[in-house]
Amino acid sequence: MLGALAMVAIVLVLSLLAAGAGSAGAGSGRLAVHFIDVGQGDSILVQAPSGKTMLIDGGPADASARLVACLEAEKVSGIDVLVATHPHADHIGGLAEVLRTFPVDLVVDSGKVHTTATYERFLTLIDQKNIRFRLGRAGDRIDLGPGLDAEILHPSEPLPENMNDCSIVIRLRYGKVGFLFTGDAEREAEGAMLDSGADLSATVLKVAHHGSRTSSSPWFLEAVKPTVAVIMVGAGNSYGHPHRMTLLNLQDYMDRVYRTDLDGDVVMTTDGTTFEVRTARSGP
Ligand SMILES: [Zn+2]
């Protein structure tokens, strides 16, 4: 997929490092983050310099064949950490096929109960395959090898009522470059993270809930201060995502917001100091 040949050369090289400093990333491999176009849904592949892989969500079931093909094209032979941010079908629908295709070492789940056949099938497969399973809670860390810091910032117990607000939120840092993966977190989750005092700052924001108006409040954006944003959204979706107000608020921080409905797959690679963005299409 994300095969370099197909990529249109949209390259941003941001100098994030003050002159001279340069420990992180120096001499080590690169971190790659693939925002995979699964239509209306989320699926993000993280390939660590250590070789470890983390898949955050698996998109809807009808995109699972494409998702598996994308992972195979990236030479993924196994998944070290599979994160299900929350049990809505646009996030976990494709995970059954992923579990059938690839060996998975650890599943991190929100633990929010959802009585759908999709979620039950997901849990049954994990059980049948005897895969390690744990709940993701604020303060937990995910081991992706040296140089990477992956911390879960949300949720905490007790879980919110609203399923989207139970989304597992992960802040991934490699040197000076940070990513914030927000699932479908809405206002209550954003408020909880702001109240927690956690450092939310990140270079790259995976915009929550497909750019819905119920997420990405100005207060939250001000705490994150992203310079690059990605909205994972399906073309012509019936939800009106992304919302115009969200796009306007994001424009206060950056000129260019990547969107999987317009750009296709969006791939970011970084050595911890600078990073590049490539997209499958040329975008808007
Ligand atoms: Zn969603």
How would you describe this structure in keywords?
284 residues; alpha/beta; Metallo-beta-lactamase, Chain A; eight-stranded mixed β-sheet; seven-stranded mixed β-sheet; disordered N terminus; binds zinc ion
Provide an overview of this structure:
- With 284 residues, this protein is of the alpha/beta class.
- The protein has a single domain (29-279), classed as Metallo-beta-lactamase, Chain A.
- It has 8 helices and 15 strands.
- It has an 8-stranded mixed beta sheet, with no helix packed on it. Strands 7-8-9-10-11-12-13 form a 7-stranded mixed beta sheet.
- Helix 1 (64-73) packs across helix 3 (95-101) and helix 3 (95-101) runs parallel beside helix 4 (117-128).
- It is globular.
Provide a concise account of the structure shown.
22% of the residues lie in helices and 24% in strands. The protein has 284 residues and is of the alpha/beta class. β12, α7 (244-251) and β13 (257-259) form a beta-alpha-beta unit.
H/I helix tally? 8
Number of strands: 15
In CATH, what is the class? Alpha Beta
Q: State the CATH topology.
A: Metallo-beta-lactamase, Chain A
The total domain count is 1
Q: Looking across the biggest beta sheet, what order are the strands in?
A: 6-5-4-3-2-1-14-15
Write down the overall geometry. Answer: globular
The CATH architecture designation is 4-Layer Sandwich
Proportion of helical residues:
10-25%
Radius of gyration: 17 Å
Spans of at least 5 consecutive residues with low confidence: 1-27
- Overall mean pLDDT: 90
Which series of helices and strands comes N to C?
EEEHEHHEHEEEEEHEHEHEHEE
Spatial gap, N to C terminus = 21 Å
Largest sheet: 8 strands, mixed
Could you say which structural class the secondary elements and strand pairing correspond to?
Answer: alpha/beta
Q: Would you identify the CATH H-level superfamily?
A: Ribonuclease Z/Hydroxyacylglutathione hydrolase-like
Strand content: 15-25%
Ligands in the model, by name, code or SMILES, are: zinc ion
